[in-house]
């Protein structure tokens, strides 16, 4: 799940939305669709880093792709629900990936699958387990500066 942080758009170049999700919404991937017809048209403001200029566009066709958001009650990477992001979570992600690679059923429910998708590509695989284990090692080191798992993954892609 996306964890935006930072005061400037350059910190995390993502769109920012106010979004209310009902507490009883099931864990899943949901689409945000842009309105492209009157009277409700979503304007998109693009900011270009090179010269800091702005451009407003009205979405249509390829300018208006749906955005997917992940909704889960679990923290990113914390699949086993014990409250600690650690090597056990990485092991669980890798074990589930191995099962699915062998054609067997996942042991994860939807909330766990979304939490396990650490790199946000909607595929849970060994890369996600590696990211969790690398972050755990980093967070356990003297170099840890409080960076979130999400920021760690973005920085190390």
Summarize the structure.
With 157 residues, this protein is of the alpha+beta class.
Task: Give me the oligomer status.
Answer: single chain
Mean pLDDT: 83
Strand percentage lies at: 5-15%
How many helices?
4
Q: What radius of gyration results from the CA coordinates? A: 18 Å
| Low-confidence region ranges | none
What characteristic shape results from the CA principal axes? globular
**Span of the ends, CA to CA:** 16 Å
Give me the secondary-structure category. Answer: alpha+beta
Strand and helix order: EEEEEEHHHH
Give the strand tally.
Answer: 6
Largest sheet: 2 strands, antiparallel
Taking strands numbered 1, 2, ... along the chain, how are they ordered across the largest sheet? 1-6
> Can you give the helix content as a percent range?
25-40%
Structure description:
The protein has 157 residues and is an alpha+beta fold. 27% of the residues lie in helices and 14% in strands. The protein is built from four helices and six strands; from the N terminus they run ββββββαααα.
List keywords for this structure.
157 residues; alpha+beta; two-stranded antiparallel ribbon; 27% helix; 14% strand; globular
Question: What is the topological layout?
Answer:
Layout: E1 28-32, E2 36-37, E3 40-41, E4 44-47, E5 54-57, E6 67-71, H1 87-101, H2 110-116, H3 126-139, H4 149-155
Antiparallel strand pairs: 1-6, 2-3, 4-5
Helix pairs in contact: 1-3
């Amino acid at each position: 799940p996306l964890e935006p942080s930072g005061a400037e758009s350059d910190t995390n170049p993502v769109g920012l939305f106010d979004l209310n999700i009902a507490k009883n919404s099931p864990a899943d991937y949901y689409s945000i669709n842009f309105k492209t017809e009157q009277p409700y048209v979503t304007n998109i403001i693009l900011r270009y880093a090179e010269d800091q200029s702005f451009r407003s566009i009205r979405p249509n066709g390829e300018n208006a792709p749906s955005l997917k958001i992940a909704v889960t009650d679990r923290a990113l990477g914390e699949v086993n629900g014990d409250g600690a992001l650690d090597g056990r979570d990485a092991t669980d992600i890798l074990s589930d990936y191995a099962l699915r690679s062998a054609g067997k059923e996942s042991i994860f429910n939807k909330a766990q699958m979304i939490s396990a998708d650490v790199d946000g590509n909607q595929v849970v695989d060994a890369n996600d387990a590696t990211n969790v284990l690398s972050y755990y090692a980093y967070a356990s080191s003297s170099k840890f500066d409080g960076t979130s798992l999400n920021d760690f993954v973005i920085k190390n892609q």
